[in-house]
Amino acid sequence: MVQLAPADILPPPGAGRSSRLVSAFADRYFKWLMIAPAAILILALSIYPLLFSLWVNFVNYDFQIPGHDFVGLQNFLQVIQDPLASSALVLTILLSLTVVAIEFVLGLALALAMVRTFRGRGIVMSLLVMPLFISPVIVGQSWALFLQRPFGPADYLLGQLVGHPVNISWVGEVPWVYIAIVIADVWQWTPFMFVILLAGLAAIPQHLYEAAELDGIGGLQTFVHITLPQLAPIITLALTFRLLDAVKLFDIIFMLTGGGPGTATYTASFYLYQIGFQQFHLSIATAGSWIFLILLSVVIMVLVRRLLRVEAA
Amino acid sequence: MKARLTPWKLGTRRLREGAVRIVIVGLFIMFVLVPLYWVIVTSIKPSKDYLTVPPVWFPAEPTLVHYTAALFSYRGLQGLINSLIISSAATLLSAVLGTMMAYSLARFRTGGQHLAFWVLSQRFLPPVAIVLPIFLLFRGWGLYDTHIGLILAYTFMTLPLSVWMMYAYFRQLPKSLEDAALVDGLSHWQAFRLVAVPLAAPGIAAAAVFIFISVWTEFFFALILTSRYAFTLPTIFRAFLGFQGAQYGEACALATTSLVPSIVLGMLVQRHLVRGLTLGALRG
Amino acid sequence: MMNEREWRDFNAGLSDEVDSWLRGDTSRRTFLTRLMLMGGAAMLPGLGFTAAGSKAWAQAVDVSKVELADPSTPLGEAQAAAVKASSEGPKEGSAYRAVQAAQAYKAKNITLNLTYEAGLQALEPKNFSGPLWQTLTGINFNVVELPHPDQYSKPIAEHIADSGAYDVLDIEPAWIPALANGGVILPIDDYVTKYMNKADLDDYHPLYKSITLYKGKRWGVFDDGDQFALYYRKDVFEDEKLKSAYQAKFGKPFGLPKTWDEYSQVAQFITDQLAPNVYGAAHFRKFGSPGNQFSFLQQFRANGGKFFDADMKAQLTTDAGVTTLDQMIAQNKASIPGNNDLDAVAQWAAWLQGKVAMIFSWPPTGRISSNYAQRDKAINFIPQSSIADKVGYAVLPGGNGEMASGYVRALAAGSNNEEAAYLFMQWVSAPPLSLVRTMLPYTLRDPYRLSTYKSEQYRALWPAAKDYLINLCECSNNAVVDMIMPGWQDYALSIDRMCTAVWGGEDPKSALQKASAEWDSTTQRLGVAAQKAAYQEFLQIPGSYADHTIEKVGQAVHIT
């Protein structure tokens, strides 16, 4: 129920000329004034710092070395020549593709399993989406405790399952450490895929399936010819969102592996954190951030523009 | 409802599918619950039960001592209070500013698609790339390690979420009521404040909950931008898993304390989950 | 618009509100009561945990806010002595002089911000030294709890942010050069001359007296003797069956290992004979635990390794480096399953359960082995010891144990109350206070003063406490120290990463090459010439190498 314009909230007739001028001004530039506070905040906390850091890119900014001398491209060279930087970038790409692929498959399977109503569906839904509301730090910590060797339950449970003692070093050895990271990420983000894909599935018109059933078309074919094409825009959207988040992977690494063993699980974010905020080579970390940002911007441009087109359509 | 149409053959297929469905969902639920259970049970275990083989699943003498210790002997309570202050303030600010901007974008197409896209693109900036300049900026403005600094950072971080959720919401609201109000002589602001906002209240509430959850669970900004005053709950778990001390119970007690509110809130807005996750791009 | 200072004050005010609420005994109780009414009696155990079972027995000062032990116990005696030394003298004592000088601040209502490692370390200033200092001087304190790596990075961040947030920093000695060069900490020589009793300075074990010197200045007071020592199971090494089996197999008597090769041999032998009941050894080799850099550098030097050559090129990829990693791999193999994933506490748990025959570790090992520490609820995450009277203490194989980390109290540049901060540092590390703080059951502060090594009260804590103290002193006589030079944090990180990579299966040689390359790039970034000078200075520190220990420079102290 909306109350329409009661008289007492109209501008009082006796208001001064200047205040009327102000309100006229406000009304005229209303759309800009509405945007201003948010836009200013974003400008202040994203554009201004980025411009400032543009300067940091080309000077020395390291607390152990006094002064801010101009060093040219030195900072960028330090990053580019650091084998760890490139391996961290490669790992970031590989890991995010892996987790997103697994989350997609699992999420789709779950969505297909959950698309029909059944008794207790509400409770099951609540349980399935729970990981989305949990801080990634807690996710990392939970898995660190769970996988801990020799006292965590993971190896013990696996041992019970296979019938002989299992002694896997989940965070100390390749490839287990990658598997541990993937498990933790999949745990947290499969529900994301699931929720979105479920919404997509539910939106597919029922009559398409009914027609297919009457024509005696098999389950797999129905899936390939009806479900997938109908779902395609949603899939693009889900993959885009997830992928752009997955490349930021930091919290789980921070809690679970600390980048180890060696530097085996340094992702781009963790690498930059380590250089910038543990070793305080601020200008090198800034240069690294810019490289990462530029690479990402290209991806963001392409993917998000496409997304907007999908949405506009 | 379609069962009447289904031939017998399809019926058995349904049955088989049903079994597969139960297995998939059941396994995944176990996968979700087991580590959570481990954290919660560790938080009530007496410490002699931590480092044992086989692991203790059901402590014989459960205790709440880790909760009282983590909250009152260590910094837990202050972290909790900080988290509440910062999350609430950032939520309020982000919801208000976001709704205003979204209204302008939706009703006036302000800045065309570019402005909307620009806001959205902030959502995908990697925090590590901007936190360093923000750190240096905060340093200059005296905002480092302050509640206000973190509130601003989180408002900035969640603006894409609130703007886009509300943008989508306003676009599906009919414009006619506001037009009528304008004809009746209300200013644009009054039409927004007295007509559009009440209509959009459910959407704003849902957006606010999502903002709150994403601030409540955030770690990276808090890690970099705070130290002794404004630290939030997620930044202090790891302190218990340190150098010569491993206070698993205390760490898990704080983790449990932190995950309960966000899960409860999450359950409340489960209906809007799709919109929340896709910034309103999908309605669900 | 508020200015910077006002912003900060506003925030400080808000936090102080919260803090005082947390700290103030009465309001805290009220809060707890209210919470209990709200949340039911579920919170009951918390009261038992936080309540201080203390009474005011010292007449001179009202110490009701300080958590004190029963005065008839050795700890209670030491506490009474500490209170007396602070309030009544001897007049020339550093504790008394610090308290006297601090009276100038009594009416000024100032607060000192002290960084401490989060968790157990922070309980001591909260329960004991903080409240006592407040009672004695009227100066308030605020304990800032930071995880260990943040004790380095947050003061730097605050320094860059120029916030004046900290007054007294708890830092590793090896951080001194970086923090001193970066202007994060201040030299304290003038204050030492003015206020400290010379005898109390000389009461430091010589290793710890010299370890705070850099570029000819003193950068803090040493406050935590993190000396590695070897702890072993006497019953295992006296086992007749093992003795004869070892003699038969190796043709020499079974005994404590004297070299690192012997160490892995003995450990492997015990594991072969007694596993799964007892394993030869356990180590903390988990990433960042942090143990790898200490173990590696200790053994690398025992194997004759030098860190740099004359041109400051890293010398890790040498025979010494390869030998060290090979030895460490052999140690891992000879150890308890899961060795490479153990942190210090998990290692202790295995040891206390009687599953391990030898561990080299920090001094708390001795206190928990004898079940002394576990009497306090705060340390209840450590299991009870099943080996209390079976533990022997020894120097490490190779003879030179790492003085692994340790803590120095340093004066933060930008402190608003420099002198008061210094006075607190002097007081808290003065002999009678240092004794109490290293004696508290839950403490992680370890003895570092000659008077502590000799203390009758400390020696009365458990039957073998005297041997424990003597062994710590001997280990410090022969200790090697961390690389106390700029860039230590970077160099150490490279070593930790190198080690965990090798435990994860990487070839030692290639891991060493990687670490060498990282060391070289760290050196280059900091400037080769500057690092060369810093290294020369490091070489002068007793404990830089096995041929330049306290013992070798003729300063050793042998106590009985």
Please summarize what this structure is.
The complex is a heterotrimer of chains A (about 325), B (about 280) and C (about 550). With about 325 residues, chain A is an all-alpha fold. Chain A has helices at about 15-30, 30-55, 75-80, 85-115, 120-130, 135-145, 155-160, 175-200, 205-215, 220-245, 250-255, 270-280, 280-310.
Topology summary:
The complex is a heterotrimer of chains A (313), B (284) and C (560).
Chain A (H helix, E strand, L loop, with lengths): L16 H12 L1 H27 L17 H8 L1 H32 L6 H9 L6 H12 L5 H10 L13 H27 L3 H9 L4 H28 L4 H6 L11 H11 L3 H31 L1
Helix pairs in contact in A: 3-13, 4-8, 4-10, 6-8, 8-10, 10-13, 12-13
Chain B lengths: L7 H36 L21 H9 L2 H33 L3 H12 L3 H15 L5 H26 L3 H8 L4 H29 L3 H6 L22 H21 L4 H5 L7
Helix pairs in contact in B: 1-10, 2-3, 2-10, 3-6, 3-8, 4-6, 6-8, 7-8, 8-10
Chain C lengths: L3 H20 L1 H15 L4 H7 L23 H14 L6 H9 L8 E7 L2 H18 L2 E7 L1 H13 L7 E4 L4 H6 L3 E2 L2 H7 L2 H5 L3 H5 L2 E2 L2 E2 L2 E4 L4 E5 H4 L2 H11 L9 H15 L4 E3 L10 H11 L16 H15 L10 H9 L3 E6 L2 H6 L21 E4 L7 E2 L3 E6 L5 H12 L1 H9 L10 H5 L1 H4 L5 H13 L2 E2 L6 H16 L4 H19 L1 H13 L20
Helix pairs in contact in C: 1-2, 4-5, 4-20, 5-19, 14-16, 15-16, 24-25
Count of helices of chain A?
13
**CATH-derived topology of one domain in chain A:** MetI-like fold
The SSE order of chain B reads HHHHHHHHHHH
**What distance separates the N and C termini of chain A?**
33 Å
Any idea what the radius of gyration of chain A is? 26 Å
Shape of chain A: globular
CATH class of one domain in chain A: Mainly Alpha
Number of strands of chain A: 0
**Count of all domains of chain B:** 2
- Measured as a percent range, the helix fraction of chain B is over 70%
Provide the residue-averaged pLDDT of chain B: 87
Question: Which two chains have the most extensive interface, and how many residues on each?
Answer: A-B, 105 and 110 residues
Radius of gyration of chain B: 24 Å
How would you characterize this protein structure?
- The complex is a heterotrimer of chains A (313), B (284) and C (560).
- The longest helix of chain A is centred in the N-terminal third of the chain and has 32 residues.
- In chain A, helix 4 runs antiparallel to helix 10, helix 10 packs antiparallel against helix 13 and helix 12 runs antiparallel to helix 13.
- Chain A has 13 helices and no strands.
- With 313 residues, chain A is an all-alpha fold.
- Chain B folds into two domains: 36 residues; 213 residues, MetI-like fold (Orthogonal Bundle).
- Helices cover 70% and strands 0% of the residues of chain B.
- Chain C has two domains: 238 residues, Periplasmic binding protein-like II (D-Maltodextrin-Binding Protein, domain 2, 3-Layer(aba) Sandwich); 234 residues, D-Maltodextrin-Binding Protein, domain 2 (3-Layer(aba) Sandwich), CATH 3.40.190.10.
- Chain C contains 26 helices and 14 strands.
- In chain C, the strands form five sheets. In chain C, strands 3, 4, 7 and 13 form a four-stranded antiparallel beta sheet that branches. Chain C has a four-stranded mixed beta sheet with strand order 9-10-8-11. Chain C has a two-stranded parallel ribbon with strand order 1-2.
- The N terminus of chain C is likely disordered.
- At the A-C interface, helix 12 of A face helix 7, helix 24 and helix 25 of C.
